[in-house]
């Protein structure tokens, strides 16, 4: 149905290429012209002031869930004024003993125009958003909601 591209560019800046010395900093470029400075997570010798792939993964899941939630609300005539989600992903060993982001917790705080949907309706809206989220449908990682609004 559609294709999505990202260009990744890295150039060695170190004299040698042993594990502790090569640089992890690189760039992500997207077709719309956006460029993101990225690196490995600091625990893997990356730069703390750059986005790492694990953070981007969590952001992609949270962003997709939010965008799907907003689309569902718009179609139902439910007006959302503000959505904030301090999402958290957990990197740990999976059942095969390999490091993976095994779980992502979403914690959306949502402000609605007028009366907010009741908790049961919010749960249903978030369940629909999770079921329809392209990214959630693309990964094995468990995604759970810690709050609904």
Structure class: alpha+beta
What share of the residues lie within helices? Answer: 25-40%
Quaternary organization: single chain
CATH architecture level-2 label of the largest domain: 2-Layer Sandwich
Order of strands, widest sheet: 1-2-3
Q: How is this fold's topology laid out?
A:
Elements: E1 7-9, E2 26-29, E3 35-38, H1 53-76, E4 80-84, E5 88-93, E6 99-106, E7 109-112, H2 119-132, E8 142-145
Parallel strand pairs: 6-8
Antiparallel strand pairs: 1-2, 2-3, 4-7, 5-6
Structural descriptors:
single chain, 149 residues, alpha+beta, GMP Synthetase, Chain A, domain 3, 2 domains, three-stranded antiparallel beta sheet, three-stranded mixed beta sheet, 26% helix, elongated
Q: What does the model show?
A:
The chain is elongated. The mean pLDDT is 96. Helix 1 packs across helix 2. The longest helix has 24 residues, at 53-76. The chain contains 2 helices and 8 strands. It folds into 2 domains: 7-44, no CATH class; 53-145, 2-Layer Sandwich (GMP Synthetase, Chain A, domain 3), CATH 3.30.300. The strands form 3 sheets. It has a 3-stranded antiparallel beta sheet, with no helix packed on it. Strands 5-6-8 form a 3-stranded mixed beta sheet, covered by helices on one side. With 149 residues, it is an alpha+beta fold.
Provide a compact summary of the structure.
The protein has two domains: 7-44, no CATH class; 53-145, K homology (KH) domain (GMP Synthetase, Chain A, domain 3, 2-Layer Sandwich).
């Amino acid at each position: 149905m559609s294709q999505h591209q990202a260009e990744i560019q890295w150039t060695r800046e170190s004299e040698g290429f042993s594990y502790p010395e090569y640089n992890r900093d690189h760039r992500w470029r997207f077709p719309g012209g956006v460029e993101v400075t990225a690196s490995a997570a600091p625990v893997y010798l990356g730069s703390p002031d750059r986005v790492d792939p694990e953070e981007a993964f969590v952001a992609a899941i949270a962003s997709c869930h939010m965008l799907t939630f907003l689309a569902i609300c718009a179609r139902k005539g439910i007006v959302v004024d503000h959505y904030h989600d301090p999402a958290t992903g957990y990197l740990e060993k999976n059942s095969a003993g390999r490091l993976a982001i095994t779980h992502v917790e979403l914690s959306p705080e949502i402000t609605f125009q007028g009366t907010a949907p009741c908790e049961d309706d919010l749960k249903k809206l978030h369940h629909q958003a999770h079921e329809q989220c392209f990214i959630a449908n693309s990964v094995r990682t468990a995604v759970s909601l810690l709050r609904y609004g």
